[in-house]
């Protein structure tokens, strides 16, 4: 327990991961790792998926690329899923949640087609990511956060930053 902690922010696309992670990283002076962006910019994929219209993530490449920076601590990692990262990387795993109608509107604004919106809203209703988090990390480090409103966003950011500062003091 010497380095700074690493925090994972996961959840269905549109729940607010990037917005939350950016604000937390900025306020805590931590590094924000947007995994999707790393995949695109650093070529950590095995080609373009025509069906889903996104890069097919090469999970081994992603983990190799992240290993050194994760070992340093002080990272806020932002990715929809959480199952392929080594469990030891994270001290806190947050699953953001949004109501169906809220999520629907955000994804529509993002320009997703009807099918993609439907798939993601179903993913949220079924709590797929929360299930994944519970299967892959110790129960006591997994927490859910509601992310429907700006007030909730601000409260979440404040809560995470407070947690980080406490951890930084203790280490
Ligand atoms: P994600 O990274 O999970 O895909 P995002 O951070 O890009 O999501 O947010 C999607 C959109 O919703 C973006 O326009 C910002 C907005 N948003 C995110 N969290 C919010 C919240 N708690 N309240 C209001 N708007 C929010």
TrEMBL record:
<feature type="binding site">
    <location>
        <position position="16"/>
    </location>
    <ligand>
        <name>ATP</name>
    </ligand>
</feature>
<feature type="binding site">
    <location>
        <position position="19"/>
    </location>
    <ligand>
        <name>ATP</name>
    </ligand>
</feature>
<dbReference type="InterPro" id="IPR027417">
    <property type="entry name" value="P-loop_NTPase"/>
</dbReference>
<keyword id="KW-0067">ATP-binding</keyword>
<keyword id="KW-0690">Ribosome biogenesis</keyword>
<feature type="binding site">
    <location>
        <position position="17"/>
    </location>
    <ligand>
        <name>ATP</name>
    </ligand>
</feature>
<dbReference type="InterPro" id="IPR020618">
    <property type="entry name" value="Adenyl_kinase_AK6"/>
</dbReference>
<comment type="subunit">
    <text>Interacts with small ribosomal subunit protein uS11. Not a structural component of 43S pre-ribosomes, but transiently interacts with them by binding to uS11.</text>
</comment>
<feature type="binding site">
    <location>
        <position position="18"/>
    </location>
    <ligand>
        <name>ATP</name>
    </ligand>
</feature>
<dbReference type="Pfam" id="PF13238">
    <property type="entry name" value="AAA_18"/>
</dbReference>
<comment type="function">
    <text>Broad-specificity nucleoside monophosphate (NMP) kinase that catalyzes the reversible transfer of the terminal phosphate group between nucleoside triphosphates and monophosphates. Has also ATPase activity. Involved in the late cytoplasmic maturation steps of the 40S ribosomal particles, specifically 18S rRNA maturation. While NMP activity is not required for ribosome maturation, ATPase activity is. Associates transiently with small ribosomal subunit protein uS11. ATP hydrolysis breaks the interaction with uS11.</text>
</comment>
<keyword id="KW-0547">Nucleotide-binding</keyword>
<keyword id="KW-0418">Kinase</keyword>
<feature type="binding site">
    <location>
        <position position="110"/>
    </location>
    <ligand>
        <name>ATP</name>
    </ligand>
</feature>
<feature type="binding site">
    <location>
        <position position="14"/>
    </location>
    <ligand>
        <name>ATP</name>
    </ligand>
</feature>
<keyword id="KW-0808">Transferase</keyword>
<keyword id="KW-0698">rRNA processing</keyword>
<keyword id="KW-0963">Cytoplasm</keyword>
<comment type="similarity">
    <text>Belongs to the adenylate kinase family. AK6 subfamily.</text>
</comment>
<protein>
    <recommendedName>
        <fullName>Adenylate kinase isoenzyme 6 homolog</fullName>
        <ecNumber>2.7.4.3</ecNumber>
    </recommendedName>
</protein>
<feature type="region of interest" description="LID">
    <location>
        <begin position="109"/>
        <end position="119"/>
    </location>
</feature>
<feature type="region of interest" description="NMPbind">
    <location>
        <begin position="34"/>
        <end position="57"/>
    </location>
</feature>
<keyword id="KW-0539">Nucleus</keyword>
């Amino acid at each position: 327990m010497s380095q700074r902690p690493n925090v994972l922010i996961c959840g269905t696309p549109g729940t607010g991961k990037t917005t939350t992670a950016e604000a937390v990283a900025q306020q805590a002076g931590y590094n924000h790792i947007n995994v999707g962006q790393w995949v695109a910019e650093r070529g950590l994929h095995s080609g373009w998926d025509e069906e889903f219209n996104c890069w097919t993530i090469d999970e081994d490449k992603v983990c190799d690329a992240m290993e050194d920076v994760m070992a340093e601590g002080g990272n806020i990692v932002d990715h929809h899923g959480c199952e392929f990262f080594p469990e030891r990387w994270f001290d806190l795993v947050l699953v953001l949640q949004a109501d169906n109608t809220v999520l629907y509107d955000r994804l529509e604004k993002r320009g997703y087609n009807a099918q993609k919106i439907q798939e993601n809203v179903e993913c949220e209703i079924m709590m797929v990511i929360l299930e994944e988090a519970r299967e892959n990390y110790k129960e006591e480090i997994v927490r859910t956060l509601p992310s429907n409103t700006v007030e909730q966003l601000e409260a979440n950011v404040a809560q995470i930053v407070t947690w980080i500062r406490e951890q930084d003091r203790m280490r």
